[in-house]
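Mods, move this if it's the wrong board.
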Amino acid sequence: MAWKNQGGSPWGPGPKGPWGSGPQSQGPKPSDLEDLLRRGQDRIQQLLPGGHMSGMGIALIVIAGIAIWLLSGFFRVQPDELGAVLRFGKHVRTVQPGLNYHLPYPIETVLLPKALRVSTLNIGMTVSDDSGRRGRVVRDVPEESLMLTGDENIVDVDFTVLWRIAPDGVGKFLFNIQNPEGTVKAVAESAMREVIGHSDIQPILTGARNTIESAVHQLMQKTLDSYGAGILIQQVQMQKVDPPQQVIDSFRDVQAARADLERLQNEAQTYANRVVPDARGRAAQVLQQAQGYKEQTVAEAKGQAARFLSVYDEYKKAPEVTRQRIYLETMEHVLGPADKVILDPGSSGQGVVPYLPLNELGRKTTAVPAAPVSQNGASR
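Not the wrong board. Structure tokens:
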């Protein structure tokens, strides 16, 4: 039965709809279903040969409709996309970029998220393009960047998170989370605050950036996996780590003082590394010289003792001979370097001057050679 819009409806008189409210605007009234079907049949009959529809024509129309319906299942996935095929609303498979096919609607449908594109999320700052200056303008967001450290200090942290849809998590990404970017931002800020809250300010400001980035990355991925978000965190990059603006000058003075302290310590260590080995080398040299002197002295003492013992043994065998030899050797040792004048008086002592200036003779012996002495003791 056709629905005639002639002042009534199946739910009662008057221009009312099935929920008791009539149309809100007056406009052209649509044709009813029978008129549409009739007009469609007329147009098809006009296209068919003979002007009337036969069984063969109906079959051709059905076959053509089925072919068009089947061909509607082809679809293309762009290079930065992955195709999520849904069968009656349930995710059944994920297809790669290129030409693919799914069963036509309403059996299967496809969603095409940008799963291969890496997205960038800035936290603690906003980056915008300035057309006037032809550059990028960075504005700080204190409510996101100010964080409390483990030693009860405040630090201003701006960082960037690079993320994408996990290759095996397209279905989770589409159906488990409603606002992916907001979820990643909330998880990133929470993870950074947790890591900063367990760290002291000094390592944060100096050399602990890589450690903090790695810890935040792992904590974010663990949290998102527990949510079943299907999101893969590519990288966490800390852009700026500074004390609050109100005390940044004082912190810079402290950092400069610490840098001077480290520089002086390094210089002192360098000096110690240069002086200590030199002193140790000199000490080792003195010890070696003392050891050599000790060994030389002991060897000489042992040699003298052995010589004395050998002389004593000979002395016991012939005391007079040994005594005479020792006397002669001693006199030779004593009188050898002295200046000497030897006189042979002979039997009568003729030709000998009673007084001789021995001192003068000793001085002249170096310049004038002494006259030979004859056998009788007188000089020629």
